[in-house]
Design a protein that fits this description.
With 587 residues, the protein is an alpha+beta fold. The protein contains 21 helices and 14 strands. Among the domains are: 56 residues, no CATH class; 65 residues; 83 residues, no CATH class. The strands form four sheets. A seven-stranded mixed beta sheet has the order 4-3-5-6-9-8-7. A three-stranded antiparallel beta sheet has the order 12-13-14, with no helix packed on it. Bound molecules: zinc ion (ZN) (3 copies).
Length: 587
Amino acid sequence: MPPEPVPADPGWDEDLARLDRDPGRETWRDRAREHDDPPWDEEDGYVPELTPDELAGIREATADELLAVKAATTGRRGPGQPGSARVFPGESASPAAAFGPGLPLDVLPGCAQLAVSADAAADEDRFDGVPEGELVGLLCAWDRVEAHAAARKLAVVAELDRRNPSPEDAEFTVDEIANALAESRTRAYSLLGTADQLDTHLPGTRAALRDGTVSMSKAQIIANATGLLDPAEARAAEAKVLDRAARLTPGALRAAIARAVIEVAPEKAKERRETAAKFARVERWREESGNAALAGRELPPDEVLAVDERITWWADELRKAGLEGGTDAIRARALLDLLLNKDSRPHQDQPNPAGAAPSGFAGRANLTVPLVTLTSLAGRPGELAGLGPIDPWLARDLATAAAASPTSTWCVTVTDEHGHAIGHGCARPEPRNHRKRAGPGPPGFTFTPASRDGPPGGYGTWRLHTPGNGPDLLVTLDPLTTQDCDHRFESRGHDPGVKLRHVSQVRHGTCTSPVCRRPARQCDFEHNTPYEAGGRTCLCNGGPKCRHDHRLKQHPGWKVDQLPDGTFQWTTPSGRTYSTEPTRYPI
Ligand SMILES: [Zn+2]
Ligand SMILES: [Zn+2]
Ligand SMILES: [Zn+2]
């Protein structure tokens, strides 16, 4: 074997500064740190004092109940969420009394005057005598002011851009901005792009940023995701997320806007994916700690899933052979073993089980069907476990690839018009003695009633044909509703059992905390009313919660209500309420 070529300079690709140049990397870092942007702490130093007349005007405007209604219907964080306002007028005498839940300054949109009032409520950054409910109100107020300042800043950037329309000038507007802000050219370019996109394509997002309904980082997420769309499409996509953008975390918003773009312009979502695939690459860089990082970027999803399964498989072998460590550490070791052709098993008395390595991937495919199209048999691949929203072509390709593995599992989820799961069935192979009559199926996926008359009301038993030579699958669809629950999934004891755990994870694909995105498969099934207190082990009294949120719910001052439609309502010690809806599937 020839010696491997040694690169002339085996150093890192570049230093951390390169992170600056890669918008995709920003996304990745965002995900890890949620808010990558430094706080906007350099607002105008000079704010004119308000005259008594102006203050009276603000008071009058803020007393307008319409503002509270608007806040409640636009999904503003904290007090804006329906049901969150618990008003106790006259009970507080603190300097921040007007910031209490539901009170005028708690619902006033972001503006310079809000900043003045919030400033006046603090004494040199100390808040003596301000109760927690009002402190959280102040926190949200500054957040809205921050967003408002960002909107104004972007408006100036857009104006600079408009004033330099000729291509030779336009190219260097970025440099004017970069110099003024001492930012890299990439960051200045990204700022300019966001300003332009909000100005020309996203009037709703621009208004929401100005009001403080969404933060700058969320506006950027929407602007990035809609970059390829024409103005009408961009408006349609933003309209699908703006009602809840304020209460979604950045990660959840990223998934929601990606799905909206796929629904509005599926071809463009596909085009974006295929174009980006031309920039497939492997990157390595120095971590801030001094260790190293390695990442493959813009790779084919089916092969990444296959690689991931292979890493898991070898990690299991390492653990079985006695290698100690947490899941992450062992998987990292497995990755290096596979790439370097090493064997890190401490006891290598067993033969290398390389032959057993999976080559493809076994999917956990969940086909989703909106109820309205169920009877017209328009089944389509929805989400595949482990990936976020994907365009219909990729979904079909992945489901077809998964069909090649006999260990893939198939489920069908029926959705309502919001994409919430309202029915579900897990596929099982058709009994052998029935198969002859079915004959060879058509290529691709089909989904047909298993009996000639068709199942009543869409529920009942269906036949699912997947590509390849496997037998047809039978799927019995059960309703997932817990409105007047018939407790069909109830389990006798404390343990939910496989079926209930599974359907609860279909209904809520992630932890039911409003700010947690941990996959439900890594969560506990948590009884909302404790089993010991008479709570049923049923879909109507439980859902997935990660360990952290399981403990949080039991912490004094925290309270969670589960509503019949699957919504979870969290009330925090400061008296504010936040809610989580069931997972939205593509429709
Ligand atoms: Zn299932
Ligand atoms: Zn029940
Ligand atoms: Zn959680």
